[in-house]
Amino acid sequence: MNKKMKIYEMRANILKAMAHPSRLMMIDAMSKGGEVCVCDLVDLVGSDQSTVSKHLGILKQAGLVEDRKEGQKSFYRLTRPCVMDFFGCIERVMQENLKEQQKVLAER
Questions:
Q1: What pLDDT band is residue 10 in, cutting at 50, 70 and 90?
Q2: Is residue 88, in this structure, part of any structural domain at all?
Q3: pTM
Q4: Which residue, 7, 51, 76, 94, is most buried by CB atoms nearer than 10 A?
Q5: How many structural domains does the chain have?
């Protein structure tokens, strides 16, 4: 595999790690509150702790979050807050798509 393809593969792996609504919610929560306890993420997402931990493991493997233990509790924080810039870009695409959809519906 050439170097350029490897870079695209690495990008795809990061995007895959983010490509779940629960993981996006967790990223968003960490962007606002700094460190977040897994227990709070369980409440936020509405899934059991093992599912949330699995999601966090995927984000950690992608290099997007890191953890810290304090007694029995685990805390996570974003390592790359710049992913929030990506969220803004996605929302602009969503807005443009909505405009196009509304335009098509208005023409009917």
A1: very high
A2: no
A3: 0.85
A4: 76
A5: 1
What average pLDDT score do residues 71-99 get?
A: 92
47: domain range? 3-80
Q: Torsion angle of alpha carbons 86, 87, 92, 96, nearest 10°? A: 110
* pLDDT band at residue 62 using 50, 70 and 90 as cut-offs: very high
In a domain, 69, yes or no: yes
Q: Is residue 7 part of a domain?
A: yes
Handedness of CA 40, 41, 45, 47 (dihedral sign): negative
**91 Cβ contact partners less than 8 Å away, ≥ 6 residues apart:** none
For the segment 99-106, the average pLDDT, to the nearest whole number, is 92
Angstrom CA distances, 90 to 24, 27, 32, 87, 97, stand at 12, 14, 18, 5, 10
Identify the DSSP state of 77: E
pLDDT score of 86: 87
99, part of any domain = no
